[in-house]
Amino acid sequence: MTTSSAPAQAGGYTYQFQYALLRLFSSLSSDVVVGIETEDDIVTHEYQGCEIHIEFNQSKLSFQDGHTPIGDRSRNLWRSLEIWLKLQRDNVNTHTSVSFAFVTNKDVPPSDLVHQLASATSDAEIANAVQQLHAIAPTLTGKAKESAENVVQYTQEELSNVVRNLRLLDGAAVAGAGSVAEQTIALFHLTKEMEPHAQEIYQALLGNLIDKCLAAWNSKQPALINKLPLAHRLQAEKDWRRRLRLTEQPWVNHDLKEYLSRDRSSLFFLKQIERLEVQEKLWTRAIGHYWGYYAERSRLLGIGDVLPQDFDARDSHLFERWQGTVDNMEISALDDVSDVESAEDSDAAQRKLARAIYMDTIDGKYCAPLGDQSTQNPYFTSGNYHYLANRPNTPTFVYWHKAFKPEDDA
């Protein structure tokens, strides 16, 4: 159960925050500042050189069917006009221009006064609109009466200026452009790959804007929101999701049934592992890591943001790391091999050395980067090594046992 006014009040404030976010991102100026609950519901300051344009905005949300929150006899309409006329008088400056806007989620009938005020463009239409203000004001009662009496006390010129610079954004006006949220998201210029995350990004920015307002109000300061920090936050949201998209996926995320069912006889790296005489679980892990890397490599290349050159550079890096491991371990092994060892013992020593090289190569503590992106899943490096070990007669071929050493490898 809810109180009759609570949903409308909560929705109204949310609508203000949403519209403030839209105003920030719809402005072509990077210096735009939006005030929330300052001189008006929403106040937009746009700076263009020495010129300042200020838009005063009244946001009116309604959940009532058939109800217009800015009807001819409503206090919302007349109180807003009263506020704007005073603000216009207070902001008389040769370097400042002002405009006014009613924003509502409801459709305003063309016959309503506010619709006629907003649509008046010619001098004759503006004069007629001002005449209607004077005609309706004396007929009002209740809360709207006092504001209306104050409105018609302003000069013809002042009333005309407000009408001339007034616009209405009602439900019908924005229907083709979508909701306030949809219009704002369109201004984010998301790529096709980012579109599934549009609502998440929008909610993150809206929440950030609300946090900034609460922080200002908690400090007894006006909520004046600059565009630039929110634009940076938008870019950070995009970059973070792009990194997630480009970061290798966990091994368990891949359905490898198709790969694992393929003929293993063509996998040259398995012949190498067979020579090491290791436990069966290492065979199983090696196959899984190889196909996991293969699938993830295909995915990353498929999305187009990772270049083949990035993988080539990674292959070279891993090859050089493997080469360093082999050199270091072979030097260390010289002290452990006796000159009088039998051929059988020598073979055992070679197998022991090969196992050590293999285990160091696939060490899960090391995750090689890909391009300028770090990686975090061990299989993606281990699988890459098995991928290199599966490609004899290539410049980055790696081997663990000397039996597989290429003839031209000095």
Please name the defining characteristics of this protein.
410 residues, 2 domains, six-stranded mixed sheet, 6 strands
| Secondary structure: helix percent | 40-55%
Residues in β-strands, percent? 5-15%
User: Based on helices, strands and strand pairing, what is the structural class?
Assistant: alpha/beta
Shape: rod-shaped
Taking the alpha carbons of the first and last residues, their distance comes to: 83 Å
**Strands of the largest sheet, in order across it?**
5-4-3-2-1-6
Oligomer classification: single chain
Number of helices: 16
- Give a short account of the largest sheet: 6 strands, mixed
Poorly predicted regions:
338-344
Number of domains: 2
Structure overview:
Helix content is 54%, strand content 9%. By secondary structure, the chain is of the alpha/beta class. It has two domains: 6-245, no CATH class; 251-404, no CATH class. A six-stranded mixed beta sheet has the order 5-4-3-2-1-6, with helices on both faces. A hairpin with a 2-residue loop joins strand 2 and strand 3. Helix 3 runs antiparallel to helix 4, helix 13 (280-303) packs across helix 16 (378-389) and helix 14 runs antiparallel to helix 15. The termini are far apart.
Topology summary:
Layout: H1 6-26, E1 33-36, E2 42-48, E3 51-60, H2 75-90, E4 96-104, H3 113-119, H4 123-136, H5 143-151, H6 156-164, E5 166-169, H7 171-174, H8 180-186, H9 198-218, E6 223-226, H10 227-246, H11 257-260, H12 268-276, H13 280-303, H14 308-334, H15 343-361, H16 378-389
Helix pairs in contact: 1-8, 2-5, 3-4, 4-6, 9-10, 13-16, 14-15
